[in-house]
């Protein structure tokens, strides 16, 4: 049944200025679960020049990015990048120009169509792939509105239920463009001694972006959906004390931050294989992902 109202995707940035806290993995597993188990249409946008999210989906769906080998030479010391070069035979190849890179070049983008940047992997999952070439793109504030404009001019919000943006751990053109485009943000965070500072810093950044780019926030707001704790190591004693300490710290209380009750729990397969997705496994972490996804869905009715 089609609705008479055009649907509007909710755009969510997964962001924390701190590196290695599980942003990419949470984006990918939560989004993939929503697509495969709940029939939502999801667009993933890989804004991180490391393009780990893209590599995971490409391995899963058997894609290979052309021209990657040239870049592999440059990055030859990085094992993860070298491995990608073995994905040459018997795989679907796409022109590496279908990517986010077109949106991070100076100049006009009004001619760009959906298919110039977006790759449909199946009925429910699409991706705007990152590319390692993006490493070389220059700092330039004139490109910050390109992602926002591209989504509007191609009416992408009508095609999806959720648009998930995986952000790099930096304050850069990439993060600014993600935030001005998003309706919400989620903060994956490790419950360690530095996370209060990281969460506080991120909220400062969001405040600043809103102040400096007011025009993008006249018809929408950029709301915090909350912090999701990520367990990147086997459960250790003292973990829940640490979580409690963070939640009750005076700085966090002042900011009135919401914390998800459920965590993104530790799964020993995740660090081993980029093409591993929790939803396709029979591990017990799939049940944990179900309750986290339920909570994610509930958040929208709580917050609106
Ligand atoms: N639930 C989990 N269980 C076990 N390992 C995990 C889990 N989530 C993430 N990891 C591992 O932790 C590491 C960091 O995760 P990830 O790359 O998702 O972080 P990130 O915040 O996106 O990093 P970056 O800031 O570099 O983009 C990776 O090796 C990943 O495989
Ligand atoms: Mg990442």
Instruction: Give the cofactors and ligands.
Output: adenosine-5'-triphosphate, magnesium ion
Beta-strand portion reads 5-15%
Mean pLDDT over all positions: 87
Helix amount, in percent? 25-40%
Question: Helix count, per DSSP?
Answer: 11
Helix/sheet category: alpha/beta
CATH T-level fold name: Rossmann fold
Shape descriptor: globular
Q: Residue ranges: pLDDT <50 for 5 or more in a row? A: 68-89
What Rg do the Cα atoms give?
19 Å
| The CATH class | Alpha Beta
H-E string = EHEHEHHEHEEHEHEHEHHH
Q: Can you describe this structure in just a few lines?
A:
The chain is of the alpha/beta class.
Question: How would you portray this structure in words?
Answer:
Residues 9-213 form the AAA domain. This protein is an alpha/beta fold and 304 residues long. It has a single domain (10-303), classed as P-loop containing nucleotide triphosphate hydrolases (Rossmann fold, 3-Layer(aba) Sandwich), CATH 3.40.50.300. It contains 11 helices and 9 strands. Strands 5-6-2-7-1-8-9 form a 7-stranded mixed beta sheet, with helices on both faces. It has a two-stranded parallel sheet with strand order 3-4. The chain starts with 9 loop residues before the first strand and ends with a helix. The structure holds adenosine-5'-triphosphate (ATP) and magnesium ion.
Question: How would you describe this structure in keywords?
Answer:
304 residues; alpha/beta; Rossmann fold; seven-stranded mixed sheet; two-stranded parallel ribbon; 11 helices; 9 strands; 37% helix; 13% strand; globular; binds adenosine-5'-triphosphate; binds magnesium ion; AAA family ATPase
């Amino acid at each position: 049944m089609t609705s008479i109202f055009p649907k509007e995707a909710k755009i969510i940035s997964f962001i924390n200025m701190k590196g290695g806290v599980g942003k990419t993995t949470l984006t990918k597993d939560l989004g993939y679960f929503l697509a495969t188990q709940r029939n939502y249409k999801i667009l993933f946008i890989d804004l991180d020049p490391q393009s780990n999210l893209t590599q995971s989906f490409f391995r899963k769906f058997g894609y290979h990015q052309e021209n990657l080998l040239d870049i592999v030479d440059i990055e030859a010391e990085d094992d993860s990048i070298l491995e990608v070069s073995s994905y040459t035979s018997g795989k679907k190849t796409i022109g590496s120009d279908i990517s986010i890179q077109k949106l991070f070049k100076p100049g006009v983008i009004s001619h760009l169509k959906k298919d110039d940047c977006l790759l449909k992997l199946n009925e429910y999952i699409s991706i705007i792939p990152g590319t390692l070439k993006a490493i070389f793109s220059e700092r330039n504030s004139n490109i910050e509105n390109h992602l926002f404009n591209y989504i509007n001019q191609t009416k992408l919000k009508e095609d999806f239920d959720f648009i998930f943006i995986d952000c790099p751990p930096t304050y850069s053109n990439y993060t600014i463009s993600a935030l001005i485009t998003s309706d919400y943000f989620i903060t994956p965070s490790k419950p360690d001694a530095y996370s209060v500072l990281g969460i506080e810093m991120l909220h400062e950044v969001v405040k600043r972006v809103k102040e400096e780019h007011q025009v993008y926030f006249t018809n929408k707001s950029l709301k915090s959906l909350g912090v999701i704790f990520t367990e990147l190591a086997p459960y250790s004693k003292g973990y829940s004390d640490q979580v409690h300490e963070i939640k009750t710290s005076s700085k966090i209380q002042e900011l009135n931050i919401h914390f998800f009750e459920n965590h993104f729990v530790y799964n020993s397969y995740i660090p081993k294989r980029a093409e591993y997705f929790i939803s396709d496994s029979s591990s017990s972490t799939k049940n944990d992902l179900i309750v986290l996804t339920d909570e994610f869905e509930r958040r929208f009715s709580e917050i609106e």
